[in-house]
From TrEMBL:
Residues 40-59 are annotated as: Disordered. Pathway: Cell wall biogenesis; peptidoglycan biosynthesis. Residues 1-34 form the signal peptide. It comes from the Bacteria. Keywords: Acyltransferase, Cell shape, Cell wall biogenesis/degradation, Peptidoglycan synthesis, Signal, Transferase. This is Ig-like domain-containing protein. The active site is at residues 335, 354. Residues 255-386 form the L,D-TPase catalytic domain.
Amino acid sequence: MNGRPISGASVGARRRRARGPLAVLATAALFAVAACGGGGGSDEKDEGGSGKAGANEPSQAVVTIAPKDGAKSVATSGALKISADKGKLTEVRVEDTKGNEIPGEIAGDGAAWKPEHHLAASTKYKVHALAKDSEGRTSAKDTTFTTLTPQNTFIGHFTPEDGSKVGVGMPFSVNFTRGITDPEAVEDAIEVSAEPKVEIRHKWYGNDRIDFRPEKYWKSGTKVTVKLNLDGVEGRPGVYGEQAKTVTFTVGRSQVSTVDAKSKKMTVVRDGKTLKTIPITSGAPGTTTYNGQMVITEKHKVTRMNGETVGFGGEYDIKDVPNAMRLSTSGTFIHGNYWAPSSTFGRDNVSHGCVGLRDQRGGGDKKTPAAWFYGQSMIGDVVIVKNSKDKKIQWWNGLNAWNLAWDKWER
């Protein structure tokens, strides 16, 4: 052997030399086998004349996916459409490059699939869809596309903070950096749930704030979970959300304190039991305190209070107000008061609308009523004012959602 391939001519010569009686018998046997095989296939035809070989034919189902494969700058809502013709969809999977799946639902007739919510912006997605025809044969289609990159975006500043522990009166509130003109799209992108379960409703204030609350104060121990799926939401034409975040907070013990402006006393109730009754001073006749249910939203061991910031001109400017806790956006606080005589508390209403408790300058004495109450309070605790000669505070003035009737809140 010289390693060269055998030519076609030499093979043919060898085959010719092999012919003879044995070769004839072998050829006859080969014909017989071929005849048996062909006869068996013919016998298996059904009455319609179509054999089992039809199961190997291509599926008649046609899967259509929009946008087209490789598309760029795809809209985050309304552009993704998946359907089947001459068959029914059996499986659809849409996910980003990190494996995050977009949930969706196949219509009852199997003709189409729709995503449950919008897509994220600046994201590449891959689509895998299967459909079956009437014979059960499967057709598949796979595509990829990339969503648009927004030129203008918005976010939501929320309260309470992630991981915080709050009082029973704390609603969940979001303030957006841009006015929202498609509130339904934003509502659909925010999911608020609680354990134990309770119905939660929402309410817009203007076009840049939305609050969520249950019908009554949260139960102690409730865990609230908020899913902000705002990434890709077109909140106003050409302006898209850019947040995808889960926020949780826990409700602590129940503390509800009631200020009676007439008797000039405050009763502090913790988990249904009275802790203490404290003498107070509330708004003077010309500057009365709002009535209503107010929620503590800020705590300051010492803060400055300037009348010019709330419409009182230069009537006061106290640079070291101790043990102060905010109750309204418009400037209502419950705080320590060291400048009024001790005899004022429980006897006279002399404030500019705040609720004052006896304190010392600097607020360092933990035994004073103001310091004690400050130490017992947390963000989200409720302070109710009654019997004041003023109107009820608006629900949007602070986080005071409880002052709007439940039937005014939207599901």
